[in-house]
Structures
1.
Amino acid sequence: MKKYSEMSTEELLALKSELDRKYEEVKAQGLSLDMSRGKPAADQLDLSMGMMKVLADADLKCETGVDCRNYGVMDGIPEAKRLLGAMSEVEPENIIIYGNSSLNVMFDTVARSMTHGVMGNTPWCKLDKVKFLCPVPGYDRHFRITEYFGIEMINVPMLPTGPDMDMVEKLVSEDASIKGIWCVPKYSNPQGITYSEETVKRFARLKPAAPDFRIYWDNAYSIHHLYDDNQDFLIEILGECEAAGNPDMVYKFTSTSKVSFPGSGIAAVAASKANLDDFRRYMQVQTIGHDKLNQLRHVRFFKDLDGLHEHMRKHADLLRPKFEMVVDTLERELGGLGIGEWTKPHGGYFISFDSMEGCAKAIVKKAKEAGVVMTGAGATFPYGKDPKDSNIRIAPSFPTVEELEKAAEIFVLCVKLASVEKLLEA
Amino acid sequence: MKKYSEMSTEELLALKSELDRKYEEVKAQGLSLDMSRGKPAADQLDLSMGMMKVLADADLKCETGVDCRNYGVMDGIPEAKRLLGAMSEVEPENIIIYGNSSLNVMFDTVARSMTHGVMGNTPWCKLDKVKFLCPVPGYDRHFRITEYFGIEMINVPMLPTGPDMDMVEKLVSEDASIKGIWCVPKYSNPQGITYSEETVKRFARLKPAAPDFRIYWDNAYSIHHLYDDNQDFLIEILGECEAAGNPDMVYKFTSTSKVSFPGSGIAAVAASKANLDDFRRYMQVQTIGHDKLNQLRHVRFFKDLDGLHEHMRKHADLLRPKFEMVVDTLERELGGLGIGEWTKPHGGYFISFDSMEGCAKAIVKKAKEAGVVMTGAGATFPYGKDPKDSNIRIAPSFPTVEELEKAAEIFVLCVKLASVEKLLEA
């Protein structure tokens, strides 16, 4: 296999003509495929259908005797705290259970920090400048929250071990206007990277200039493995922070969105008592309580951590062929061509693809014209600006294997075509 | 029946001695009764148990074909907009469906106004002073939201027709720092008053000095009648505002909290398209969407407005005897004594009691010591401060009729005792 960069202009032109022909053929098929969002497929959702009747004709009191059909219990029923505590690897007393979306909790946490400050510190809206560190590529919806509140975002490169901790340590210790960092520490969005033990320990030992600096630890894929035998392991940060004398430095977010039903799951925050008390102070004004019946529904259906793991193995059985098919296609079609690199995650919902510099937008545009919707190029960076225009997030979960096969073929075709065009421009 | 105020000191002392004796007897019984919060009783919640299986083995797509088990549909499925639109007497396109709590939506609306302003106006956090009008007595949780955000609250007296509109009109037109007013326009909390047609029309025709003034119209009890034949009627304000050239002046909030399950219902906002677009701008950052399965669950169970009304009649059958028993007890025991006045609502969840000035705290304290928990005296006023110390909110829904009978007897005893003591002080 000859690298594209080593081809002569003639070779590139011949290749382009062949690729153009194939591309026109594909376009003519009028396909409509979607690899844009990390949505579970219908067969994954079928796995949780038992939840829809688990509360029928049942006693709907939680274990403390509270009727879950009525008002009360602001921060979660005990059995839900235990279940999501186990999932988050913390004690139930370090858990608050929220509504249907951890993203909403993160939004509210930033909103509250703006208007009321963090644990008695100055509200961010009274400060001239507030900044967040953003490991890149990362999750677009994190970046949108900080952008919405006018928080300046600073890119931090992702390494195979997690964010560049030399840079994180330096910035956080020098600049008191840096109030947070967005992290997806396990099977990261979009690369599927799990932070190394050293990275987590360095996070826990940060010496931030700002007393109200918090790590936004969005552990969205904690139990979302693709393999039984080949799993990543992430060490637990709340305990590490406590051991390092920084007990209040981290908020851990989780949810069952990709365990049960996206949009109809339950979310949780794990943090120190002092942080959770800070959360509870606004919660008692904001709400009388979240949906306890849905908490009970989850507990009755999953029962415990073993039940969750067993359930996630069923998800894995459905997701694994899709991930492998995309990775196999990338390797078969693009291996050795020098026009792209990609990750091979052991879990999570995404594969990250890096094209040659300056090609990502063109690839996504071509794919769209051929009927394959990808996440917008740039979406994995703050402000939607990928400085190298090279990162593309691939979400293989939602299409069927057959659709995905077609979509992956079209994607690699678009990568080849955009790369040839780029090289011919030069 | 002799008025207490016309009794001689000797008569009062004799009465006090008899009441003291009865009070000690009651205390000795060690009762534990609760008339404090507007919670439905267990038999009311039983009415909605069919909801717990309505989604079992069913097709969970909404009418546009979207799988409600997955991400998407930020502002509500069409059939839920239609159902809560009918309940709110507006078109479905004037509805956004939210999560489990309209209180949470109100909180978020104030929070957003603080950080981002209302429809392009200056964010309230950048203003020196922001004020809200608070009809009193009113709902404690409304007042807590505005207090939490440091918004100055101005008391406006409630009249039998609703808030004192002379005062509202004057203040709103003169003071641009007044940005809102809290209203429970139907079967108001705690008085059970329904705003008159003239009041609603005067609201719609307000000429606020502030372009971002909004009426927070919390129509929490819109279909919560106690009687089939003796119902209050509230005219629809969104249409009135539009007709008066003030289409954007009102946010209408509603929820099914006291229709289906408190904490597990669905909430909605009805407003103009411009307002809803303003809401949607932050929603698309805050959430991927609310719980669509719960929306579907409500629609499949209630079907339509007729279904809602039929269901509410069952609630009424359970609530009516409780309201009537409390009112009967008040009339029988306190009628003609000149030591208290109370409302006789046709719907909602509360009866409002006004004691002689300076007696409310003492009554609530005595009731508590005798085993009857009432809403804290003062709670119905901003900052918890009732200037006359006379208003007490009675919530008859949660106890059984038998418990309520006992609780009402103890309450009137405490009213008598505190009144005698007050008169003897003078």
2.
Amino acid sequence: MTKQELFEQIKEKQSFLCVGLDTDLNKIPKHLLDSDDPIYEFNKSIINATAKYCVAYKPNLAFYEAAGLDGWLSFEKTVAYIKQRYPEMFLIADAKRGDIGNTSEMYARSFFDNLKMDAVTVAPYMGEDSVRPFLVQKEKWVILLALTSNKGSNDFQLIEDGNGEAIFEKVLKISQQWASDEEMMYVVGATQDKLFSRVRKIAPNHFLLVPGIGAQGGSLEAVCKVGMNSSCGLLVNSSRAIIYADNSEDFATAAGKEAHKVQLEMAEMLNKYL
Amino acid sequence: MTKQELFEQIKEKQSFLCVGLDTDLNKIPKHLLDSDDPIYEFNKSIINATAKYCVAYKPNLAFYEAAGLDGWLSFEKTVAYIKQRYPEMFLIADAKRGDIGNTSEMYARSFFDNLKMDAVTVAPYMGEDSVRPFLVQKEKWVILLALTSNKGSNDFQLIEDGNGEAIFEKVLKISQQWASDEEMMYVVGATQDKLFSRVRKIAPNHFLLVPGIGAQGGSLEAVCKVGMNSSCGLLVNSSRAIIYADNSEDFATAAGKEAHKVQLEMAEMLNKYL
């Protein structure tokens, strides 16, 4: 998907919501556990209930890999289901990969060729040759970790060099020598809203994937105020707050309601800051 | 496995070789492609031919995930095979994971509980809460990326703060507040031999997992000279140079010969520097 196509989706749906499919067997409604593939059944219901209100889905690979083979099967079936039922969705493999060239090529093949994902999250620590292999295919995206939403993000991402430039700023600058804003996005946590202006100074036109709204406590308005650009430039992710909104047999309806609530706020933000 | 048990293995086998199972369908001998599970068949032959000469195996997850479900199956079967036939082996899941707490917990569960691996490689960029979940189980190891062997390692790992301390040194220092040398190792590339002394100044007692010998051109002697400590402290990985030593029907014999050659050099190094 191109940047323009993504922006068109956002305008049409009046939403820049990405629903994180962090599906955990220990958290889904108990009545699903009797089915052959509880994770897939849960995802299907969540997807059907939320598709109207979001433009992207982001399965976090860890949750699927934790279930081994069965988990991979659930993941592949979920991706295939979205592709078939909602082909307009922007599909992000939240894999946080990053390895040397020949290995990253393998991951790129896995996510783009085999699974037909639109984007993969990639960790920057190993540098250019760990990221480039993900950039060979047109209309496929690398979403590079820049400034994450977790507490530990301070451990290394905020370390400053002699000129007071932080590592996350180095990542934003140096990676722009590898790819344009038509093929790269950055992860910038909603919990980092005080640093958003520093991000936008270096990357004014890029899309940012923003986790940390909801369960992690980031504020949508604060993020939009400093983070939105002329093509929206934001994909705001919510996982737990939506998919685990309710644990009863009506879990999907509750998830849909929650997603709708966020979509309405987003429509307001688009109207206010776009 | 404890640090002492690993050292005992090294002394007994006179080897600190880790064989990287970076198994690629496009590189294995053609005659294997007719079997039901070529990757598993290849791995079994390589393992049986090299087990005498190494103390560890390191399947790189990317190569298996690239093959999707079948790849995961080959990976799980390979791990189970090693566990059953060679229970003394130190098993490393080269996964380079790193995500927020609840997600890293999932990975820890996947690799330690389900797959019974001894160690997982972890990326440091997201900081403490992305690493801690891997540290909850006794005799299980985190192998943290510090200084990698690839060209791109210079992009961020060598950036220095105001006091001339590089990011890789920060990773070595800060991570020692999270775990001891009984539960954490570091990845330090053989191609970085000039920086090994800086690593050993900060982490004198830790085991280092050292990729980059062979195909990537690092020197074993250079690494041992500065990197070996009183409990060896080195696991030197070789992947392509051993497993792809030969592409004929005798590939396993050739791999065994290559591994034996490395083991003999290592015996010499242990004799010289331990």
